Records
---
Amino acid sequence: GHLHDFVAVTPAFHQGHLVGLFASTCHFMDVGGIGFGPDGRDVFEEGFYVPPLAMITAGEIDQTLITLARSNSRYPAELEGDLMSLAACNQIGVSRLADMLDEFHLTDLTALCDQIVRRSR
């Protein structure tokens, strides 16, 4: 991707164990830079570079990260909304995975993965 593509990754825990990761990607409308087209001659003219960082830790949003991102966009409210939508999307996936594991009395995805491999041979 490029600077406008943000990826949020959320760990999925079930019964205290990591069972997977959910990821969602969104192309953000504006992350600063020279403009909205492909006019940048180098990465610094394309926009604000955000290295991999934790946006939410133990349920708490990192307001410093949100403030930095908002400060480097012409559309700060929309950018913050997009960030929150990525987190919400992943959280729905985590919740639905936990519901499925409970419904089928599974502790992780191993049995399901094994079944998929068996059926695909």
---
Amino acid sequence: MRIVGHGVDIVVVSRVERLRERHGDVFMERVFTPAERAYCDSARGRAERLAGRFAAKEAVFKVLGSGWRGSMQWTDVETLPDALGKPVITLHGESARRAAEMGIARVLISLSHAGGYAVASALGVSDT
């Protein structure tokens, strides 16, 4: 396994909550996949969960060397928990194409939130 890229992002939870309140479904549907929205709505801590996923998307875009721009969509990066609750990244669309082009087999993610902030650290790794 080889590290191909690393990205970190930190988000103020209240900022994401304000965006959600101001732009409603337009913001939610543009940024989060249906599965992410369902997960974040399923338990307490909705604002923290949304902010963590927002930070994860930004961190993954940094792994891909682009930041958010061009033909990549926010919903190209999906963060959902596995059976044990560990966050897992699934790439779609242009983000998946870019990762393959870079030799990235998978993206590992770590999320945390405390004190009104959410942080994500992402590693793009190859299998070689």
---
Amino acid sequence: MNTSDSKAFFYALLAVFFWSTVATAFKLSLNFSTPEQLVFISSFFSALFFLMVSLFSGSLKEIKMWKSKDWMIVISLALINPTFYYWVLFKAYALLPAQQAQVINYSWGVLLALLSALLFKHKLSLNLISGLLICYIGVALVSQFWTVQAGASALSGILFALLSTVLWSSYWLIKKYFKHDPMNALTVSFIISLPLMLIIHHPLSLQLVNWRGWFGGFYVGLFEMGVTFVLFQKAIRMTSSIPKISALIYLSPILSLILIWKFLDEPITLWTLGGFGLILVGNLLVQKTSEQP
């Protein structure tokens, strides 16, 4: 492994580590803030981070080249991420055990592949169909157990978790049409999202959030939305093998379940492990489809 690949591997592992902590961070932060407060605080710190990175790199000058179509795309992206996606995701985490919300949310990759195939009129391969079925059997397995355990609140949380996968998949599909610097898109969309959230979510009780809630929002904004994006993009640029770097993403939910067990005192059930295993197999089948010519 050459020096560039070694650095890429390090940056990717660091990003994966931070991603693996966020499910625990979500749940802990929601003990001290509402989903509306958390999404605003975390987006505020994330917007500051993206703005500093863009100013430091000098990339913001490119915005002058944007046309009205580009601005419409970025505004659409801002409405989805972070405005609605993270609010919906935090609602799911507020209503469900962290392990269940995370496992269901992880099925977004399979949904993205399906929506992409339908939108761009790609052939629905056997691997894609099999991956989709296996993945959602896993979702059903996890959902059934917790619905029986917790009833109506669990059902609402499951619906929020499933909606988060639709929003996140839609975000990436729309982002395909943006042809400029992705960092600028993130910077502008997160800045735009702040007044949108004040209108839509009304998080006006921010003064009631104690320091733990603010720290949780700071951590989520920095390490779920901000630093990890820069680290992983840097790893992708430096590596000679993108598939090897991308494969490291599958470590994140495994590490996350360990942290959930350790710091949230959630016993990881066989239903969660079984459902997660099926979702992982479904994702791998779909990824195999995308790698085929």
---
Amino acid sequence: MMDVKDLLEMLQQTGFISFDGKDYYANEKGHLAKQTFFYVDGSKYYAKGDFTLAKNETITKWGKKYTFDENGRIAVEFLL
């Protein structure tokens, strides 16, 4: 169970954040990515509507399918 101290520390983080078995990404201003693609070190990622990173799954956005690996990096991108 997370206490207030843990929550405050998590909210001040940037970059990739792991919490309660799920992974998230916060930009340099500390804002969590949501429903957006973003790049880190040349790799493309996607944060879903619940803020979690797409991992080991395929999602469809804007007429394209995107498959993500176990690290959340886009592995395959193709038109429908």
